[in-house]
Sequence to fold (196 residues):
Amino acid sequence: MDTALKFKYLECLNRLQGKDYIAAVISFGAAPTIKGKKPSSLLAFSARRKNIFTLWHYYKEDICREFDLEYCELKNCAEISTVLFYRRKMLEKYLTNKNNIIFLNSLGYQEAVSLEEKLSLLKSRFAFACPHEVGIFLGFPVEDVKGFIDNKGKNYLLARYWKVYLNRQRAELLFKIYDQARVDAASAVIRYSQRT
Fold:
């Protein structure tokens, strides 16, 4: 996203309050998922910024219904919520990809058959740290998730939405698609704030 659009988006975002504010944050942060280009998106809501933590808990059902998203609160602390927003069919399809199943089973997911069971196990692992397999849930290529683990986060080809270890061309294409979804979301927030 170009700098001028980003500043305009932030300026408009800061004028919003309440439900409009949290909806704008989610529409931008989860834009690739909302647009159906990515199975899920991960966002954190903190009490430090416009008390977005409280806004999330108050408006979450309405906003997810409006965006046609489901969510799983992977971690809830006193001042921060880490939330996975997802499109059920897309996420189920991604998680049942043969290579993803093999990788997740190697990490102990073989007993977790349903999406709810997989999300429950992921959530339990978030209690200690952000587990590597969250990358699979976010739609990252399994070879990049493995590359991140094997290289301890170093020696990557490209880093944007995730660290790329193989197939740079595919990643660049996906990044452009995700970027466009965010440009569209930012533009929609700007238009909305100018009407209010």
Q: What stands out?
A: The chain has one domain: 3-191. The chain is about 60% helix and 15% strand.
